[in-house]
């Protein structure tokens, strides 16, 4: 707690009272989503003219914390004080709090000017003063040095430009506190520089700034103090000047790498999946690798590094240039149905949206991809008598806790749902598994079970390509780790070379490319 | 405590309603049948029951087809247009070919069913390959199909050959053919839904089309096929209607999509997709037709039926929504809260 009360030398003489009371003070914030605790007992203080960095791995609870601070979510426990006054059920804009969200809140078909001013269009009661709107928009865009055509619909802009519009929009609302959630992920280098200049200026204007990021270098570049989150808990923090980089990295990576290393067997030489020159601008370029039978190959990288885009392209969910072989057979144009037929399974990152059939039964969720294998031969094409038996087998094998296999899967816990989605591919007997964040949002117990399962799959000869932003899990499971940064493989580590700090460094900071020895 | 028990009781009732909707609809049919037969002596007359059966077969068969569309979270409002256009084209072609005798009927049947499937296929292709919202596509094709039909038909009346009326007025072993057809279509539909890959895929797509796609299921072919099925059923239903009326006239199938969709939703199929009941759709159609018929017999204004039908649709959708359940839940928890607050104050 002591580390947070460190006061930054104030630039200006302020009245005693407000000197004592921090601009924003939150204590003991707790937020859980259907049983999963996203933010657990987190404190945060923001002084006037201070930049507080909130850092942590993906899924550490950063975005949930942001949503609590801007009133999108209400905390289950704890409180937030703004200038000494408790606030709850508030409308952030009324209090001078604004956030630049990671997922844009822009209206694609409206113009740049309209988007910047949309929360409060200038004009009389029922009319809009368009000239004024443009003036206002221009003022805020100029502040961040964004030279955009005010009349262009936002959908016509690049992601980086949209980000600038989003920032300008937030600037207009932010009279007290500005929260930036991973603002640089889609910015070019000059745009990033400009944003940092703006932040410096806002700091001089006595605004409180919360800067959410997982780029460690940025923290040292811009922040005064840092709050490190891990698994929803505040695990450390304090003035950045007293926080060596190595310490911060360690805090982020978290628990000492457990000796619970899984028995993952030895891969064979047989190439199950081969990718050559995969490119899809601006997400990734020139990606080549081979995945062997019995191997667990991990793709590590930060959000926005292009991991998900890469594996989605391999599975045929996105277009990409390059060549692809599955078990020696070249696939000209991968699509999910053809990949399924070839024995490739895919576990999506967003389980709820892209994996589950929420209102259908556990049984049907388990057999969805394997139903052609289960069709009865007696009356061709009609009925699947073995379905229930097969589903029960898998549910038992994966230790899925359920209250009846015919009950909708949405009643299951996140961990059990995720196991069921893995089970869906088990049912097909898929030999190549592409797993995107297989343990995101599942509790520790289920996580361990999923790890064991993946290890077991590899031992029995499946090839696994696994994406995760949780390094400990990859260190436990993988034979090989490839580090993806800004769409390129910048390093490759084999099992005996695993070094968490080294891997994080390649993923997070500007570092030269490391050439794997294999 | 009593409050909690009551809450659970209410919840379980609501849950069971959502679980076995067709039973509720069946109960509704009997209750309503009883009420109408008491209110109007004409209701139970043979002729009237026959009317209901034919009309319910037409609506019911279309509802079975529509169920496949709605279970994928789609909608097809062009079925009335398909019904009319297939009849105009089929009778027109048959008469032009000059086929008379007993084969005229068979030829008209084949052409109408084939055309219905094709027109449905056009819907499916437009929705899937042009990527337009099903509501917009079928609203457009409804207008196109009907306009085309009236243009071809010169807004006239075509009298089909007598042999083509079998599906409407024929009997096999004393059982009206429309009834047999409705039962057959429902049976096949239920079989497809529960026993084939296609049915499974359709439900999965309705539950989450992105999940279905990412699981490697053939999303597009299924989404095209369901509209073809709806078209086929509309073509078949038209043949029954034509046989019954003995003519092909411009008012055929006008507004029927509304009754059909209401029947499907009433039967327990979710408009948002992913859950469906074929039998429910048929029973829903029977219930709606009965309401229409009963109100007619009671000399109610024709618009009363519209009011009732609309209300039934809203009621059915409300039961489907989890939020209806939530509403009850919240209402009770709110009352519990108030009670406990009062207690606090008083102690």
Question: How would you describe this protein?
Answer:
The complex is a heterodimer of chains A (518) and B (347). Chain A is α/β, with parallel strands linked by helices and 518 residues long. Chain A has two domains: 148 residues, Rossmann fold; 238 residues, P-loop containing nucleotide triphosphate hydrolases (Rossmann fold), CATH 3.40.50. Helices cover 32% and strands 24% of the residues of chain A. A six-stranded mixed sheet of chain A has the order 6-7-8-3-9-10, sandwiched between helices. Chain A has a six-stranded mixed sheet with strand order 16-17-18-13-19-20, with helices on both faces. A four-stranded antiparallel sheet of chain A has the order 2-1-4-5, covered by helices on one side. In chain A, a hairpin with a 2-residue loop joins β14 and β15. Chain A is globular and about 75 Å long. The N terminus of chain A is likely disordered. Chain B is globular. In chain B, α3 crosses α12. Chain B has one domain: ABC transporter involved in vitamin B12 uptake, BtuC. Chain B contains 15 helices and two strands. The two termini of chain B are 19 Å apart. In chain B, 78% of the residues lie in helices and 1% in strands. The N terminus and C terminus of chain B are likely disordered. A two-stranded antiparallel ribbon of chain B has the order 1-2. Chain B has 347 residues and is mostly helical. The chains are: A alpha/beta (518), B mainly alpha (347). At the A-B interface, α10 of A face α9 and α10 of B.
């Amino acid at each position: 707690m002591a580390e947070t009360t460190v006061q930054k030398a104030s630039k200006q003489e302020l009245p005693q009272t407000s000197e004592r009371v921090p601009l924003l003070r939150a204590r003991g914030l707790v937020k859980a989503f259907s049983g999963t605790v996203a933010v657990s007992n987190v404190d945060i203080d923001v002084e006037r003219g201070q930049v507080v960095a909130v850092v942590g791995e993906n899924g550490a609870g950063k975005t949930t914390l942001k949503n609590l601070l801007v009133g999108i979510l209400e905390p289950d426990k704890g409180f937030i004080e703004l200038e000494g006054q408790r606030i709850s059920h508030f409308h952030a804009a009324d209090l001078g709090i604004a956030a630049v969200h990671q997922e844009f809140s822009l209206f694609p078909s409206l113009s740049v000017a309209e988007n910047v001013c949309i929360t409060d269009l200038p004009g009389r009661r029922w009319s809009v003063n368009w000239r004024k709107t443009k003036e206002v928009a221009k003022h805020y865009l100029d502040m961040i040095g964004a030279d955009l055509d005010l009349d262009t619909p936002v959908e016509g802009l690049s992601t980086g430009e949209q980000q600038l519009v989003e920032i300008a929009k937030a600037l207009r609302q932010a009279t007290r506190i500005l929260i930036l959630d991973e603002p640089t992920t889609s910015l070019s280098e000059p745009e990033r520089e400009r944003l940092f200049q703006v932040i410096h200026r806002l700091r001089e204007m006595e605004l409180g700034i919360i800067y959410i990021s997982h780029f460690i270098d940025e923290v040292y570049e811009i922040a005064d103090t840092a709050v490190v989150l891990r698994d929803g808990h505040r695990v450390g923090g304090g003035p950045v000047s007293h926080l060596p980089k190595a310490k911060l990295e360690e805090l982020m990576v978290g628990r000492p790498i457990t000796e619970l290393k899984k028995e993952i067997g030895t891969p064979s030489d047989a190439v199950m999946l081969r990718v050559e020159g995969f490119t899809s601008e601006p997400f990734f370029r020139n990606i080549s690798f081979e995945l062997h039978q019995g191997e667990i190959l991990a793709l590590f990288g930060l959000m926005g590094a292009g991991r998900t885009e890469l594996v989605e392209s391999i599975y045929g969910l996105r277009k990409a240039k390059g060549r692809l072989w599955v078990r020696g057979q070249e696939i000209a144009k991968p699509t999910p149905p053809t990949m399924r037929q070839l024995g490739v399974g895919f576990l999506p990152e967003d389980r709820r949206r892209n994996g589950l059939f929420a209102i259908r039964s556990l049984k049907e969720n388990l057999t969805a991809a394997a139903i052609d294998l289960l069709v009865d031969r007696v009356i061709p094409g009609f009925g699947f008598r073995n379905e229930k038996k097969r589903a029960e087998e898998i549910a038992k094998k994966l230790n899925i806790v359920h209250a009846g296999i015919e009950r909708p899967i949405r009643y299951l816990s996140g961990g059990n749902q995720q196991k069921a989605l893995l089970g869906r591919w088990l049912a097909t007997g898929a030999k190549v598994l592409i797993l995107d964040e297989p343990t995101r949002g599942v509790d520790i117990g289920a996580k361990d079970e999923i790890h064991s399962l993946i290890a077991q799959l590899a031992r029995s000869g499946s090839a696994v390509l696994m994406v995760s932003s949780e390094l400990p899990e990859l260190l436990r499971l993988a034979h090989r780790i490839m580090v993806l940064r800004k769409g390129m493989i910048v390093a490759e580590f084999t099992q005996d070379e695993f070094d968490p700090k080294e891997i994080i460094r390649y993923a997070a900071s500007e570092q030269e490319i490391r050439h794997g020895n294999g | 405590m009593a409050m909690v028990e009551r809450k659970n009781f209410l919840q379980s009732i609501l849950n069971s309603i959502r679980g076995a909707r067709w039973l509720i609809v069946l109960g509704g049919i009997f209750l309503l049948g009883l009420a109408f037969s008491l209110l109007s002596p004409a209701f139970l007359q043979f002729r009237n029951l026959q009317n209901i059966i034919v009309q319910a077969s037409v609506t019911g068969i279309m509802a079975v087809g529509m169920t496949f569309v709605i279970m994928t979270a789609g909608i097809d409002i062009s079925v009335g247009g398909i019904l009319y256009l297939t009849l105009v084209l089929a009778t027109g072609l048959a008469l032009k070919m000059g086929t008379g005798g007993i084969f005229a009927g068979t030829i008209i049947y084949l052409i109408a069913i084939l055309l219905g499937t094709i027109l449905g296929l056009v819907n499916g292709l437009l929705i899937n390959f042009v990527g337009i919202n099903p509501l917009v596509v079928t609203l457009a094709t409804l207008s196109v199909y009907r306009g085309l039909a009236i243009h071809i038909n010169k807004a006239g009346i075509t009298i089909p050959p007598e042999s083509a009326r079998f599906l409407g007025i024929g009997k096999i072993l004393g059982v009206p053919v429309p009834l047999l057809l409705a039962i057959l279509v429902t049976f096949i539909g239920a079989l497809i839904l529960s026993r084939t890959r296609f049915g499974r895929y359709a439900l999965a797509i309705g539950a989450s089309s992105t999940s279905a796609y990412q699981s490697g299921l053939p999303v597009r072919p299924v989404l095209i096929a369901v509209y073809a099925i709806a078209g086929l059923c509309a073509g078949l239903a038209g043949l029954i209607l034509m046989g019954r009326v003995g003519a092909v006239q411009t008012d055929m199938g006008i507004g029927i999509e509304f009754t059909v969709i209401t029947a499907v939703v009433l039967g327990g199929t979710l408009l948002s997709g992913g859950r469906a009941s074929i039998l429910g759709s048929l029973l829903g159609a029977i219930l709606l037709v009965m309401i229409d018929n009963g109100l007619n017999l009671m000399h109610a204004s024709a618009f009363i039926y519209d009011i009732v039908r609309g209300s039934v649709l809203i009621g059915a959708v409300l039961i489907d929504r989890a939020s209806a359940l939530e509403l009850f839940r919240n209402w009770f928890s709110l009352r519990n809260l108030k009670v406990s607050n009062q207690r606090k104050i008083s102690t």
